[in-house]
Amino acid sequence: MGGGGELQVLTALDAAKTQWYHFTAIVVAGMGFFTDAYDLFCISLVTKLLGRIYYRVEGSPSPGALPPHVSAAVNGVAFCGTLSGQLFFGWLGDRMGRKKVYGMTLMCMVVCSLASGLSFGMGLGGGGPAPVMATLCFFRFWLGFGIGGDYPLSATIMSEYASKKTRGAFIAAVFAMQGFGIMAGGLVAIVVSAAFRARFPAPAYAQDPAASTPPQADYVWRIILMLGALPAALTYYWRTKMPETARYTALVARNAKQAAADMSKVLHVDIVEAAGAGQAPGNKFLRRHGLHLLGTTTCWFLLDIAFYSQNLFQKDIFAAVGWIPRAASMSALDELYRIARAQSLIALCGTVPGYWFTVALIDVLGRFKIQLVGFFFMTVFMLGLALPYHHWTEPGNVAGFVVMYGITFFFANFGPNATTFIVPAEIFPARLRSTCHGISAAAGKAGAIVGSFGFLYLAQSRDVHGIGVRDALFLLAGCNLLGLLFTFLVPETNGKSLEEMSGDDENRTVPV
């Protein structure tokens, strides 16, 4: 290809055929998201177990449970870290480059996953729960910080590698690994709890409160949390081998010749670029993208209130409608096994298929339609759970509730949960792409914090200052409806080049 006028490397990327390199990038970036989802959601599986181990009250008719403030901290502290990491690493990715920062986030995740499982304390022997909970929350904050960096960097890297025709599917495929991470968390909890249950059988709490939680149960939650380090560690080497994206090198670092050399190797195409700079920084951002940024942040914020509330408190909702037996009728490991089984079933039937429907159809239907339809049906099915809520709690109606609940997850993932991740990686200029994605994602995590802390209190019955599960579901339906309205601020990006969407094409030339 010639070297005059337009940046040839960007034209080559837009028109590139799908190659093995693209699939490698999806797996390497996707394994980060697999780990993110595993680490963020496996905590909800073990919180009941933590309550039984560390908060058992002698003579109580029901098993120990984490106090509301401790439960909120354990569930929500990783989201606080994630929000901080999204802002920090998003900004750093535009300053230092995507590649340099990418390895840092992964090492942070590996170290803190292991450290979370090593949270020190006296276990069942005494010494109080405070040291364990404090150190667990500390390491989960920093685990979240590393996870936060993965959001803007994975999305930006994948969008900058992909061609116009396949960009949506490739970014969605990276994000879809989140579904497998949620599934893996459930399956690991099933296997570990089943193995310990077989080796150390225990009676139900109602039969023998003390013996219902064997001392070895303290190892179970630690093993589940620590295994989150494994997939991240396995992909570290490949992350360090990925070249810097051509769009960063050409448009931000302003070295078009280096960008052409890097992409010639991976795309197996000769790209010859004229010496010179790429894009000069512009000052039109707010005029061109101000409303876009408002749209991406607000939609992600509203979605995550509903999405994380549903995910983190599935176990409470399942118990409320009778899908999981009363806690006192099970041993500690029985309860963990049943919660993990229920959560895995929802993920298998609703969550995972939704992600892959998005991968298959996003470059056909476009982002706007999928997000609009997703928010609409999330609203409809959430109201379908809330309006006849007392009907669902009656014996014999659990199956219908679970199906409806699973469908809301399907439309979250074949809908705004995927598109809110994809669009911010496409519409903003290269020099601010990672930063703006980080801001949008951080708004989402603010929603997750509202969901994880707020829903915890709201879903409690009215006699303990909550509003009950039914009214909480009405609130979540309202969030989804607002998300539908704010979707109209976000433009359709399907089939357009990144430079066309961001305005970088106004400076997409080099001196000749």
From TrEMBL:
UniProt keyword annotations, A-Z: Membrane, Phosphate transport, Symport, Transmembrane, Transmembrane helix, Transport
Q: Where is the Major facilitator superfamily (MFS) profile domain?
A: 25-495
Q: Which GO terms describe its biological process?
A: phosphate ion transport
**Transmembrane feature ranges:** 20-46, 101-124, 169-196, 219-238, 345-365, 372-392, 398-423, 435-460, 472-491
The UniProt entry, under PANTHER family, shows: SOLUTE CARRIER FAMILY 22 MEMBER
Q: Which organism is it from?
A: Urochloa decumbens
Q: What is its main location?
A: membrane
Keyword hit for Transport = yes
Name by which UniProt lists this protein? H(+)/Pi cotransporter
